[in-house]
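pls design
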């Protein structure tokens, strides 16, 4: 099993280590414009391997040909997360949408090269705006939609699950609630999951998760890496092992003659996304989903 990771920053390097030590991967390619950094990360992970079972070939490159025949291509490369502060230096905005134009341009350049060498791989999107990059690949390439998968609201669902776990004082692993919609300001927990009977209201969960994420951004150089790389690892392993699990992931979705790209619960198998599970939604929630679809659609996918 061969994995290419595009972008070897805090997320890409951690994911490389997690997959190298999983025992399920034989080859990992680290691809980054900063080749010295990615070479150093590859060496560091290689030096860790004697302490784990199995062997994995790990190396860095800037040559697309070395990504040939990758089973998974994980897209983490991105411009720096945009941070806006007020006159006193306080954080006032960290909007994923501010990254859209630059990252669309970035991936318009990268994707054709990758597909040329790995037309049959799974394209796993971690970069933001997540739904926009998923749409870009799905609508401008021949890769089947079930093999273009964004991590989407998996990380947000994990945050809610952890909040519940801390309240119950035991770790929950299988979500009974899912955050759906746009991976951004329009995400929500459908009322049909009725999470308030467990430990609080859906809106309170979302607000607490947002506050905790902002705390991470402010105190950790405006980035997260453990949660998102772990979510990505779980997705890749589920496909490799044909686990038949449900995860909230970004991909194509249709609602009342509208089609777009956002996160919904998806059945994950060796095929990638095998089935989308639509929860029962009320009128307000359907309106939110439609707003999510339109928010993702507003971007021009052809960079100028």
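designed seq:
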């Amino acid at each position: 099993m061969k994995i290419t990771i595009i972008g070897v920053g805090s997320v890409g390097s951690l994911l490389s280590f997690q997959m190298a030590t999983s025992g399920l991967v034989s080859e990992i390619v680290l691809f980054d414009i900063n080749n010295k950094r990615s070479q150093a990360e590859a060496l560091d992970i290689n030096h860790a391997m004697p302490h784990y079972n199995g062997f994995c070939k790990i190396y860095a490159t800037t040559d697309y040909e070395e990504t040939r025949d990758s089973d998974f291509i994980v897209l983490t490369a991105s411009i720096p997360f945009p941070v806006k502060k007020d006159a006193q230096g306080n954080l006032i905005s960290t909007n994923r949408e501010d990254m859209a134009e630059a990252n669309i341009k970035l991936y318009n350049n990268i994707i054709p090269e990758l597909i040329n060498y790995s037309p049959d791989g799974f394209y796993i999107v971690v970069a933001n705006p997540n739904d926009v990059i998923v749409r870009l690949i799905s609508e401008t390439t021949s890769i089947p939609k079930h093999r273009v998968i964004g991590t989407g609201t998996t990380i947000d669902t994990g945050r809610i699950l952890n909040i519940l776990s801390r309240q119950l004082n035991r770790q929950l692993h299988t979500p009974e609630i899912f955050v759906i919609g746009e991976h951004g300001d329009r995400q929500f927990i459908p009322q049909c999951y009725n999470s308030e009977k467990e430990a609080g209201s859906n809106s309170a969960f979302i607000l607490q998760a947002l506050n905790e994420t902002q705390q991470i951004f402010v105190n950790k150089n405006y980035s997260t890496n453990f949660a998102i790389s772990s979510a990505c690892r779980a997705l890749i392993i589920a496909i490799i092992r044909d686990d038949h699990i449900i995860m909230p992931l970004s991909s194509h979705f249709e609602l009342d003659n509208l089609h777009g790209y956002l996160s919904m619960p998806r059945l994950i198998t060796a095929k990638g996304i095998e089935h989308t599970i639509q929860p029962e939604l009320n009128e307000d929630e359907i309106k939110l989903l439609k707003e999510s679809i339109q928010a993702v659609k507003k971007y021009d996918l052809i960079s100028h």
